[in-house]
Design a protein that fits this description.
Helix 2 (about 45-70) packs across helix 3. The chain is about 40% helix and about 15% strand. Strand 1 (about 75-80), helix 3 (about 85-95) and strand 2 (about 95-100) form a beta-alpha-beta unit. Strands 3-2-1-4-5-7-6 form a seven-stranded mixed beta sheet, sandwiched between helices. It is of the alpha/beta class. It has helices at about 10-35, 45-70, 85-95, 105, 110-120, 155-165, 185-190, 200-205, 225-230, 255-265, and strands at about 75-80, 95-100, 120-125, 140-145, 165-180, 235-245, 275-280.
Length: about 300
């Protein structure tokens, strides 16, 4: 792993030791939710949430490694789209000053709020379409926004401008999202299939008893698109890291799966399924956006 923030590269054995410790910390936080589950949407089911956390454990570890490499504690962190707050809870244990936000439907859960508050994490429910956001200028050294932007069904520029305002000069905007140019999407398109959510997901989203109120991907981006947006919103993109899911089940035939992995991991990095952007704030951008009833995002 390329760790270049926060004072240069570190010895591989130190990174490996740290990775084990971080993985153990993530596992401990997730185990707390398994022991004491939260029915966050009060639909009498926690099984999907538990499975979701287990599947995302490697990405939580990756995020924590990256944040520690950029700036060790103490530092001021905002996690946007925190959900159950595995990353926030881990960072708080590591000595960071953490605030967490997600949609009001999640943050209204008393059990979740109690868990955050016990860890010393300030939290509040926000819908990101309602700008300006309630944080002061330059409030944070690090803003984390993982697997959020693809769920927004509105123009993200006002939100990005707010993140830019809220970060201090030299702060990190750590943004991760699916790659619309991934091999999976390319294969679907080549077969004449849609790369978007199936129509049935629109029905599921509005059905009682389901937790997918924000599960739809309304707009995914490739690396070039996101770099352009970030640079025009005052950031310098230090790095873009493409990464793949933990398991690439391309084919039941072992040789084909190995070949596909090699191509993806070595020769076609832009075809991997996910992208993380390390964007450092160079300047504050204040664009005078023009809204109409059809485009405004700050109304309830």
């Amino acid at each position: 792993m390329d760790l270049v923030f926060g004072g240069g590269e570190r010895p591989a054995e130190e990174v490996n030791m740290e990775r084990k410790e971080i993985a153990a910390l993530v596992s401990d936080v997730i185990a707390g939710y398994v022991r004491d589950p939260l029915d966050i949407l009060q639909v009498n089911s926690t099984a999907d949430v538990d499975l979701y956390l287990q599947q995302l454990a490697p990405t939580y570890v990756r995020t924590l490694e990256d944040i520690l490499a950029f700036r060790p504690a103490p530092a001021r962190v905002l996690e946007v789209g925190a959900f159950l707050g595995v990353v926030s809870l881990c960072l708080a244990r590591l000595g960071y000053t953490v605030e967490a936000t997600d949609i009001p439907e999640f943050m209204a859960h008393s059990g979740l709020r109690a868990r955050f508050e016990k860890a010393g994490i300030r939290c509040q429910g926000l819908n990101l379409r309602h700008t300006p956001l309630p944080y002061a200028d330059g409030s944070f050294d690090i803003i984390i926004c993982c697997e959020v932007i693809e769920h927004l069904n509105f123009n993200p520029l006002p939100m990005l401008q707010e993140f830019n305002r809220m970060g201090s000069l030299g702060s990190l905007f750590y943004l991760s999202h699916p790659n619309i140019a991934s091999w999976k999407n390319r294969l679907k398109m080549a077969r004449g299939r849609s790369i978007h959510n199936p129509v049935n997901d629109f029905f599921i989203q509005l059905e009682p008893g389901y937790q997918m109120i924000v599960g739809l991907h309304w707009r995914e981006y490739d690396g070039a698109e996101m770099r352009e947006m970030l640079e025009r919103m005052g950031y310098r993109v230090e790095r873009q890291v493409y990464f793949s899911d933990v398991d690439l089940q391309v084919s039941k035939r072992r040789w084909l799966s190995k070949l596909a992995k090699k191509l993806l991991l070595t020769f076609l990095p832009g075809w991997k399924e996910n992208i993380t952007h390390f964007a450092v704030k160079e300047k504050t951008v204040q664009r005078a956006f023009h809204f109409t009833d059809a485009t405004r995002t700050d109304i309830g």
